[in-house]
Amino acid sequence: MAENDKDKKDERLVYGPPRDEVEVLPGVRRYQFISKSQHRMLTKNLNRIAMVIIALSLAFVIFKAIFSGTGYSVYCLEDRSCMRVLSQPEGENCPEYIYPVEMVVASRTADYDRFIRQGGLRCTQCGNCTKWCILEINIPEVAARMQELTLEALASGKVDAGLVLNEGFVDPQSREPLTEAAALARYSKPGYEKVLKLYNEMQGIIKQREVNVAAR
To answer: Which residues contact 32 (CB under 8 A, 6 or more apart)?
Structure first.
């Protein structure tokens, strides 16, 4: 009898505890019927379904960015290294104090509201932030394409005109909306040519929308 017990003990040391036992702490085990792998088929299937959903979601985000023309945004690691441009001296910093990473992430998902609130419409495409990106993402190209998409969305009514006026074109220091006269004065400076062009086009769309509403 003693020899049989010794053999069983040696067998457990070599092969480990039986599969229907769960080791909680060294030397302490409890028996759980559900711990057997054959009783966990539902969990395996749920894991497979979850992985498929994650893969499809990732593929949707990637292809959406590629087909919208903002494919560079997919490479963004969101490490915020590009934000070092904000602490650089004048001429090497971002003139509008925009968070480049927020602008790129908004471009990846075509989130117009986020793009506008983060100052994407005011991006001058100077390229000062690109040199700080560890992956050298062409941030000005992403911003330019997203500005075009936002303009199209405004024209089709997908973007609220009030959002553009109140949060799209603001003073970078006070964050207060610029009046039309103040905006024209600011964006008439050298380096703001693209912003001025975008501002005038959006103002034209907004005014035309107002005329259409008044004519109804």
So the answer is: 20, 22
